[in-house]
Sequence to fold (155 residues):
Amino acid sequence: MKKVIRVLAVVVVVCICDIMIGFIGDWYINSLSNYSFLRAQICNVVLNKEADVLIIGASKANHSYITEAFSSDSVTAFNAGIDGTDCYTADMVLHALCSRRIPKLVVFDIADRQVEISPDQTVEMFSYLYGKAKPIEELMEEELDPLERIKLNCN
Fold:
């Protein structure tokens, strides 16, 4: 009987720790800075940004477009260009942003070499956002097998 209680206590402690780690992870992802690493940029854009004019693409979009040129008193602009991204990443970011608010204008700046990257690489790159942004989850569901979905839901 003591052994059963001990095993049950360990299971309860592990479950509580898992839930606490999940809450801490959610808090961390939602509080990331605009200017940290690539995942932080993507996460910040996907979870927090809205604009009337949206600029999407890789480093060229990130460094070539000045949002002040598109902005006015009644129009907001946001440059969601992220260095080192491909067309699939830009597509996922666009879907996530449009789920909250559809922009009036989208500047989609993707070079031909950015189309050559496999969607599998992008799905792997966005796995940390699974369950946090519904449009990204829906796009990932097309590429994931059932076992991968279970693993991502457990994180």
In short: The mean pLDDT is 76. The CA atoms of residues 85 and 125 lie 10 Å apart. The chain has two domains: 1-31, 34-154.
